[in-house]
Structures
1.
Amino acid sequence: MIRTGVTVVCRNTALKVTSRYLRMSLARRSNVSDQTVNTSFVANLFRGEIHFGQVFPYPEAADEEQKEYIRSLAEPVQRFFSERYDPAESERLGRPPEAVLDELWETGGYALMIPEEYGGLNMSNTGYATMCSVVGAVDLGLAVVLGAHQSIGWKGILLYGSEEQKRKYLPMVSTGRTVAAFALTEPGSGSDASSIRTRAVKSECGKYYILNGSKLWITGGGIADLFTVFAKTEVTDSRTGQKKDKVTAFIVERGFGGVTSGPPEDKMGIRCTNTTEVYFDDVRIPVENVLGGEGNGFKVAMNILNNGRFGMAGTMAGIMSTCITKAVEHANSRVQFGKHLKEFGNVQEKLARMTTLQYVTQSMGYMVAGNMDNGSKDYHLEAAISKIFSSEAAWIVCDEAIQILGGNGFMRPTGLEKILRDLRIYRIFEGANDVLRLFVALSGIKYAGSHLKELQLAFKHPTANLGLIFKEGSRRVARTFGVGGTDLGSFVVEPLRNSAHLCAESIDSFALAVETLLFKYGKRIVDEQFLLIRLADSAIDIYAMVNVLSRATRAARINLPSAEQEVLMAKAWCVHAHSRVQGNLKQINKRIYLESFSTMSQIAKNVCENGGVVHKLPLEINL
Ligand code: MYA
């Protein structure tokens, strides 16, 4: 049973646990008036303040020289895989063939973003997204072998390491054939990352820590020789002198002794990856191996994850493109009822949706990576959205490809069956989508809430705050009466004006809905997961709309050969996304839906109490 996700056997209990932590977190956060400027498009969306800087124009994160560098690395890798790699063989072996791994080590495939001085290829985030796509298109298992090493395994050292730590460890993980792993999850701590129990105690001499505990489902756990480990440590608050347990991150070498691994897990997919438990028994860690400072481990863990999530969008865009190619080959060649499949409206709708989902995913991946490359620090929500969206889009695309291929799609040799199995974990690991949705909604609400607090304060001293009050007043009038609201028309090319209008309308309805929820529920909103999930879904759809509008506009303005197709996809996307947003926001407000959420809650309680479905066969016999 996978326990990192919220959608575990008894969804109800898991949601309660998450809710408790999120409630505590919101209560803590609401005491803090967040005055810092946040440039995140999504965070500001919750305030109804639209910061276009991150989204228009579509980021140009690579100049000609960088593009050439990315191409020079990506092309040979793509060729190598198409000529010499068989994903089915890796699955059979339970690991990629040694010759492939050798090649990857030798060509820098394990160190894409490590600076050259430490032995890596010094790729940008945009370059990394491209490599993710190339590898993802071939084998999602191999993507995890490489991704767990670099998206999270050594990423902490790159982001938080001291110069000494970087000099010592980065060459090992880039050219020294040392596999790195990220050890956060524990038997009792999946999505609820701050509840870990692994513990490190400082020695009396103060020179080392003694680490004890165990970690679960660690990718590369049986083959890694270097771990980023998160453990509770006792930390003294420098202001109050009080002692408190806080998470600290450590760089742990297997060679320290006391590090052992369990047998490889028997998994549904990504079977060429090594996943094991890892045990730490009295491991002596030198104090120099604390990563990012004592007590800062939770932020270190979250930021490593934030920093790597866009890679999943790249990976998913790659595999979606593979699925679409297979579906198109079949639609072009298969004749049924006297016609090629591609001539049937039903198949056309599927292909259009699939290719648009791939386009949105790719646009998000490169938007987030591009903003990171351009120096943005406020990308956490966007990175989480790209992870949620891409892993779900890829699932739909693969499933629809199988449907188009019919019986052929179900057969192993077509390759789609393996892709579907491999894809399943992507919605669970690197932050389960359910919890990331709550993260997006609650972080946004926290940000919106701090703004409302500012406003309340402003009303206490109205004469000193006339500007703020007037600005807010006009915005509310605009939102409420649907006039003079957000205008995106000037950001897009002419054929996309109507689509931009749909997006703007969604933005305004969203801001109004957030405000209404905040007034209605206040802090209690953290318990309203039916509503929070719908809010997150609306934010995801709006962010997706903005992405495609921005990218298709760029394509049209620079006359890309694909511009016409990109504009078509953006148009189609905005119509359906707009209608989903309106639907979701309606559900947040209307009594009939709110009642249906209580009904669903009751149904779930009944089934949990009963240990399964409550109803019997409609035959009045007991089976
Ligand atoms: S690795 C394991 C993955 N595990 C997770 O992702 C854990 C998920 N859980 C969480 O993220 C957190 O516990 C949640 C919060 C979100 C539930 N960024 O009180 P809090 C701040 C920045 O809300 P909790 C794996 O799967 C927050 O603002 N800050 O915390 C292998 C607050 O700050 P302040 C954040 O309720 C994958 C403080 O922390 C974030 O306990 C293999 C406390 O917050 C954040 N995100 O939980 C992958 N969250 O106090 C391979 C919270 O200042 C990939 N905070 O207000 C392959 C890809 C392809 C590669 C291809 C290669 C070529």
2.
Amino acid sequence: MTERRMRIVASGDYLHTMGRETPEAMGFGAYAAASDRLDLDFLPAGPQTAAVPGAGMAGADTLLMLGQYLRRPDIESAAATLALVARAGVGVDKIDIEACTDNGVLLFNAPDALTEGTAAGALALMFAVSRQLVAMDRLTREGRWDDRAAHRGREMYGKTIGIVGPGRIGGELIRLVAPFRMRALAYSPRLTPARAAEKGAEAVPLDTLMRESDFVVVCCPLTEETRGLLGGREIALLKPTAFLVNVGRGPVIDQDALVEALAARRFAGAGLDVFSTQPVTADDPITRLDNVVLCPHAVCDTYELRRDVLATTVKDLLAIADGGLPHAMVNPGVVDTPRFRGKRDALVARMRRPG
Ligand code: GLV
């Protein structure tokens, strides 16, 4: 029976973050429902700073990845059988994509399943920072009712939002803020005016976006092109009343420059879900600022989103088992390589064998 099922191992950060929850409560129902074809095992618990060990993937057809690293030596050591890496999320910056390709491993992710949840998370951070919700909560608990004037909020109505990296998430965020009658600006290096207009935004140079936006929202992935995109010079362009939100990746912003500007109150505040180094430690200077709202890379992590992401990976894996392809391939070029084809064809044949 096991022989005819796809052998999948899930990265150790699943068990690490599962706590007392069951896999079903964490959204693994779709795997349970497909257990006649998909055989899922969890690798031993480990934090997101760890890499998936090659030995843990030995003999597996598929790695299901949450947020650990995936490095070349581990890919190589498992490459005899490993044909697929399903990234249960969107970012692939912790995965050695080239090593996947070199070893005939198809990497795919689930961007569509994250779009709405992450855009809503960005909106939550926009509200939290502009209405100073965390400070207001603290004042109320401490009985400092009369200090509330020092934390007066700012409106979103009629303001300008600037999206850095207007992909799926940025586009959805523009849709979400439409009732606030916001003007939307967008920047990415190759964004055309027509493409921006399709998303309801105006394509502008990065400096213009930084200068004119009341809410700058970073949604872009981490690539060599986006690393350090917002440095001290760009941050200095922000209006004193502007807010900066980051739901993309921490290293897109120079965090030292950001902390310095926030400490000097050169702009109004930041809502951050991602950081240059994760996890953020309690002694990090960013934790001492009172004009930031911080989230542990979890603002989009809802039960519904996890369920939808995992259901998407199941759909994709079953499609592959039936000879098809997943929705969102990161290294599609690998599909036509003999190494991938050999493993995929053997897997499909094995899964089709009459029992
Ligand atoms: C979340 O940050 C993801 O990349 O899936």
3.
Amino acid sequence: MSENHDRAAWLAGPGASCRADEPYPERSYRMILLGAPGAGKGTQAEFLCARLGTCHLSTGDVFRAAKCMSGGLSPAMQTAMEYMQRGDLVPDVIVIEMVRERVSCLQCNYGFLLDGFPRTVAQAEALDEMLASKGVKLDAVLSYELSVEEVVARLSGRRTCRSCQTTFHVTSKPSQRDGVCDRCGGELYQREDDRPEAIRVRMAAYRESTAPLEEYYNREGLLVPISAEGTPEEVFMRTAEALNQRLG
Ligand code: AMP
């Protein structure tokens, strides 16, 4: 997440206003990040937001934020939590409605990096319709490619800050103090859906539901495949080169 965007309108939904301390970028990029869970989309989103001044719009973050908010969860959110805890995809109707309520974020002059949405062809079609109705065009769909073995190794070692959602890894990106976030001092925990049983379910959901989106966006001429092997910095160099080639 950019230090200068709190994404309140995205995380808390209609009624919330974002605090954004930086001017609008000269160019608003509107992109989708695709890739298996653990491919590093969140980390690349942080790099990209810092470079391009865009907002990182993650549907997983909306669900996690809802869980932490005071006040009761709506029935739709309660159902979403049950699916999420098992590692299953939340039903399309719930996710699509949640994004529709936040459609103003897709028109924002900061631009956006959608992370974790769309995850099914039905969600991609709904997104196309939302964007078309607002006259917004996508610039690119960045598709991060990684082997299954590497995905499992990355996810099972991931630790997430309860307060600011920054992620660490027990071996490749450890925090300075065990269990404590370097950024805000919050508590680090293992997400329920990063446990081995849930990882298996998430990978199956990815293969069945999300992988077909590569073909969907390839047909639309938007797909930019990027290898996600190596360090986050190496992957970002590849991302920057690919974007340069595509968007100039
Ligand atoms: P993420 O942080 O993107 O890995 O999302 C965490 C969990 O939230 C997923 O495993 C799903 O249970 C749920 N989720 C997030 N985005 C979506 C989506 N677009 N469609 C269905 N479920 C989602």
4.
Amino acid sequence: MPLRSLLFVPGDSERKQAKAAGVGADALILDLEDSVEASRLPVAREMVREYLAAHADEAAQLWVRINPLDSGLALDDLAAVVRAAPAGILLPKVSGAADIVLLDRYLSALEARDGLTPGAIGIVPVATETPQAMFALGEYKGCSPRLRGLTWGAEDLAAAVGAASNKQEDGEYDFTYRMARSLCLLGAHAAGVAAIDTIWTNFRDPEGLSRDAARARRAGFSGKIAIHPDQVSLINQAFTPDADEIARAQRIVTAFEQSPGVGTLQLDGEMLDRPHLKQAQRILANVPAAH
Ligand code: COA
Ligand code: MG
């Protein structure tokens, strides 16, 4: 099952960490980067390490966002948290696949230091936060077996190019950021990993979030990042096939099973061929156990 909801939790907030465990996110991203004030980073590293150790048995995967590789902070972040065996590292402000290769090596060294299973820790880059990264979205295939997905962000990219805003007058993302989203989607699928949609910043706008998440899922994203507990169940819902979808997918698969050797057939007056079968099989593969 792909990760549907990934909730950011500031690394130095005891209250938010206490709350995070119970909200039903598929993954938590304990943050050591932008949500932590610089003077709090040493404390945050310890808090994140302790949280990982104390919550290892819970259902949510525990990820950590470290500081960028060129910040001078990333190695200390990794040295502090890897020993508590996070599920993965979210790497911000990457320039391209070479950064994943480098992080893979750091993780291998620290896994050996700490006696952890080699290669167990995953990597997801935030793959659109620098202008350079935008030209590298096609190069992630095969860069590391640790790669689990690609995600994108519009805030840091806007800051990096000196944009006054990343939005148009009507509130939609400007072309550059819609392009970032599309290239992230295509780059993830080209690499055979999950495409994870970016945050919806207005956490008091459930309708806007649900619309945005539904749009992302239709486009081919399999999950989305949350910044507030209230967003988690809406995201989980948006990325879970509903009963109608499951029933239709089942009918498509059955129709092909009942017509062996037939490449194209009709259902309810619509033509179906291999891409429809693939899509139906993908929906059924991701049906949660509760259904
Ligand atoms: N994870 C866990 N718990 C959170 C949370 C989060 N991301 N955001 C809020 N909460 C908790 C609050 O602590 C509060 O619980 P409490 O009453 O027990 O303290 C409850 O949820 C309701 O929060 P609310 O009052 O609505 O919001 P807030 O003003 O406390 O926080 C933000 C608003 C935006 C500062 C907060 O949601 C946040 O820190 N989000 C993550 C930011 C982040 O990580 N950014 C980096 C990536 S872009
Ligand atoms: Mg940022």
